[in-house]
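[INFO] parsing input record for RNase_H superfamily protein
[DEBUG] input buffer:
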Amino acid sequence: MGDLYERLRRIREQQRRGATLPGGSGSSPPEGPVTLRRKSVTGGAPGPGWEERAPGVFYRSLPGELPRSHACQVSPDGRWRSISAVFGVGEICSPLFLDVETSGLSGGSGSVAFLTGLGRFVGTKDGEDDRPRLRVEQLFLADLGAETAYTGELHRLIGDNPCYVTYNGASFDIPVLRTRAIMTRRNLPEARHLDLLPITRRLFSPVIGSCRLSAVEERVLGVQRDEDIPGSQVPERYQEYLRRGDPRGIAPVLAHHFYDILHLALLAVHLNGLFCCRTPSSATGETTDLSSGCQETLPVVADEAARLRLLWERGSPSDRDRAAFRVRHLLACPGSSSGRAREKLAELQIRIARSRKDWPGQEAALRLLHRYRGSREDAVALAKFLEHRQGRFDEALQVVSAAADRWGRDASLEHRMARLLRKKARYDGPSRISPG
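[DEBUG] output buffer:
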């Protein structure tokens, strides 16, 4: 906004001096039509190894590798296979790992996607070192006036039927690219989309709290970047590049963006391994050496109750069977979990048992919650089960009465106790327990 005010001030000053039209120093206009053009600062290549695809549009391709333990997920022809049904993109696909850097920290029509990265699997190396290989393509906009050519080249690289894999792409990357496509009278190619942020949050936010990509890289993937540029500085670096055309300031942004794509692919196969019963590299002791710019740290373990809930809610029938078996096993072993984790497992067991009409399993989980947590809601839930499924009115009354003595009477307990007393009187005669 300050630049706009400065430009308006200069225009008013030129008008006062009588120099509003090029070619004339006074009030006499030049002969013939006059065309006013804004001088455009077109930057050159942002560094070595970049190919100019159009004036102001630069492209480069860089190789990358993932840990050897994930080789079973990448086919020789570069497709991602054995994908968990939790992701909802099919059992096999050719993923397009997508990340965008913009000229602003938020979306909208004024935020330009000046750097777009696309990562693709290209298979595995031959021989003993069968690490999954990745090709990272970066497209850079060096001149804002070349956005139409930039968007056309980007859509050509994306192809007709992409399977996007992003991190917060549903809220940021895809809407930004869709908006920029509309601004250049195009339609963004869209098909399947897997956003890893919601799944990552469900698995790891109970463990690590914030699920920013940098925190996930360090705590979940076990890699930490050295001398990385903060994302908040990216728009400023790009504006400086447009003003001066100096590639040295934009170089850290390009490196930061490359590792975003590489770590996005690593996170995808890591999460898939958690759902497909494959051991991730961090658990086998293998060093996650993605580059000389990263060092390994000790990763954390996903929240097991959240993992099993995702398998139960979104998985295949075999996934649901595995989740049900695992929940029963963890609840049967007192030392396998404790505290809040055990409560969440019991809550999941109630859902599983109810859907499968496993009444003994549901009763065991309800009693576990009532014993460990013992809230009014737990007492009412157990009493309802004993009343409706088992017809054990005396036992249900004991549960409700104990909860009333502990927590005090409320509407839910009064209602449940009155129902139980009426049923008990109908089947067994008057009860000694009164609702008053």
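[INFO] Confidence is low (pLDDT under 50) at residues 18-41, 278-297, 431-436.
[INFO] shutting down worker
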